């Protein structure tokens, strides 16, 4: 097999924790909104299609 040498995992320095936290909060908000939309659709189908 070929010898590729040492692995380089990252070239950036520092930790951008605030950006990580903002992305996580945005994802959680998106999931909550998605669940609410699906629940409204299911309730509407139960009401209008029965």
Mean pLDDT rating? 86
Q: What structural class do helix, strand and pairing data support?
A: mainly alpha
Mind describing the biggest β-sheet? Answer: none
In whole angstroms, how far apart are the ends?
64 Å
Flag low-confidence runs: none
- The number of helices is 1
Count of beta strands: 0
What is the molecular shape? elongated
Strand content is under 5%
Rg calculated over all Cα atoms: 22 Å
Helix content range of the residues, please? 55-70%
| String of helices and strands | H
Commentary on this structure:
It is a single chain. The chain has 50 residues and is mainly α. It has a domain at 20-50. The protein is built from one helix and no strands.
Could you name the key traits of this structure?
50 residues; mainly alpha; 64% helix
Write the layout of secondary structure elements.
Blueprint: H1 17-48
Provide a compact summary of the structure.
The protein has one helix at 17-48. It is an all-alpha fold and 50 residues long. It is elongated, with a radius of gyration of 22 Å.
